Amino acid sequence: MAITKEKKHEIVKELKEELKKARLIIFVNFHGLSVSSSRDLRKILRGLNTGYVVAKKSLIRKALEEFGFAGQMPELGGEMAMAFSEEESIEPIKALNVFSKKNGIKLAGGIFENKYIDNKTVIMLANIPPREVLLAQFVNVINSPVQGLVVALNDVSGKFVRILNQIKNVKT
């Protein structure tokens, strides 16, 4: 069933409203996703304060034209939806990545920090470790030179003691 021009204008207007508020947008190719899985995906995203809108690709492109995001828009192939988040968290990307692996959908790219990103960048962002792990890695990097210095100083003093011990054994 064809969509009327008025309905198309309304959809584009709604998409533009979502785009104005969004800090993170992920394009999802949901081809082959069952209705129950789609419901599960919406529930997961709702828990992360992330909206999920299915729209025609032409209407999505029309809504995006006005904003002038940097970079090149990713290829929008197949049946497309957009996940919107007003927060600067990458948790929606992680959730979508896990869901896509389980259900065979594809992340086609998105918009992050007012720039278009491709699907490889989306997956890279999804694989960033949690904050606590990153902080632990950072502490380890800072601690490593200090730990190396302690080992080196300990080694120098150990060698000095061994040399004194050898001198004592030679004299006796």
Alpha-beta content class: alpha+beta
Give the count of structural domains: 2
CATH architecture of the largest domain: 2-Layer Sandwich
Oligomer: single chain
* Mean pLDDT over all positions: 85
Mind telling me the CATH class of the largest domain?
A: Alpha Beta
Count every beta strand, where a strand is a DSSP E run of 2 or more residues: 5
**Into which percentage range does the β-strand content fall?**
15-25%
Q: Rough shape? A: elongated
What fold name goes in the CATH topology slot of the largest domain?
Alpha-Beta Plaits
Note the run of SSEs as H and E: HEHEHEHEEHH
Terminal residue distance: 105 Å
| Cα-based radius of gyration, to the nearest Å | 27 Å
Uncertain residue ranges: none
Strand order of the largest sheet: 2-3-1-4-5
How many separate helices? 6
Name of the CATH superfamily of the largest domain: Ribosomal protein L10, N-terminal RNA-binding domain
What percent of residues adopt helix (DSSP H or I)?
A: 55-70%
What does this structure look like?
- With 172 residues, this protein is an alpha+beta fold.
- 59% of the residues lie in helices and 16% in strands.
- It folds into 2 domains: 5-126, 2-Layer Sandwich (Alpha-Beta Plaits), CATH 3.30.70.1730; 129-172.
- It is built from 6 helices and 5 strands; from the N terminus they run H-E-H-E-H-E-H-E-E-H-H.
- Strands 2-3-1-4-5 form a 5-stranded antiparallel beta sheet, with helices on both faces.
- A hairpin with a 2-residue loop joins strand 4 and strand 5.
- Helix 2 runs antiparallel to helix 4 and helix 4 packs across helix 5.
- The longest helix has 41 residues, at 131-171.
- The protein is elongated, with a radius of gyration of 27 Å.
- The model has no long low-confidence stretch (mean pLDDT 85).
